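User:
Hi there, any thoughts?
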Amino acid sequence: MSIDFDSLRQVLVTGDSLRAAINYGNPVLAQRGPGGEPQGVSVALATELARRMGVGLKTVPFEAAGKVVDSAAQNVWDIGFLAIDPKRAEDVSFTAPYVLIEGTYLVREDSRFKEIDQLDAPGVRIAVGKGAAYDLYLSRALKHAELVRGPTSASAIALFLSESLDAAAGVRQPLEAAARENPGLKVLPGHFTAIRQAMVVPAQKAAALPMLRAYVETMKASGFVAQALRDSGQEDDLVAPAEAP
């Protein structure tokens, strides 16, 4: 599908700038640079989209994915970057994923838990970031373990440590970083879900979705997403496979 960026601008942008919701709760996708400037693959995709539409870019920062979803009807952003989840589809519309990330568990080195499935047991308490993709997934998938929610993904790790919980659930890369920074912790092998990160629009702007789907597929195929991942210190094998736009 060819993309008419003039038409996309008319559907998507209400002023002279594209407003992009940037979730700093997932450091694989977005980070603050040395001067506090936004960077990462989601920022790169938003910047290039704004350039192709011939408008400026305004980033709208959030510390947790759930807060992005909660604000979808408030007309404070035009595009965002979230994990695909059926519950969120009530408020936002998704492209195909541009990145795939594993959701897994952080535990103590001496934990009795050696495999992912062992954690779904009575009496087990797992820290999660409220409203994060893995919170939504585990809320449906777990039958016995209890989820203990912190306000953000980063706070879930601190909660796991301070409350002596059995595990922290999250995206593999920041959990591995926490294990490196805290001797005595480890990340379990495998994953409980593959988190599919996509570009999103508020439900009221769903008319833009076909063109945004084509844009995401173009950026994956061109190597732009892989390069943006490398530029922000991430592994380029996180790029999602091509899908029909």
Summary: The first strand starts at residue 17 and ends at 23. The helical segments are 5-12, 41-53, 65-70, 133-141, 153-162, 172-181, 209-221, 224-231.
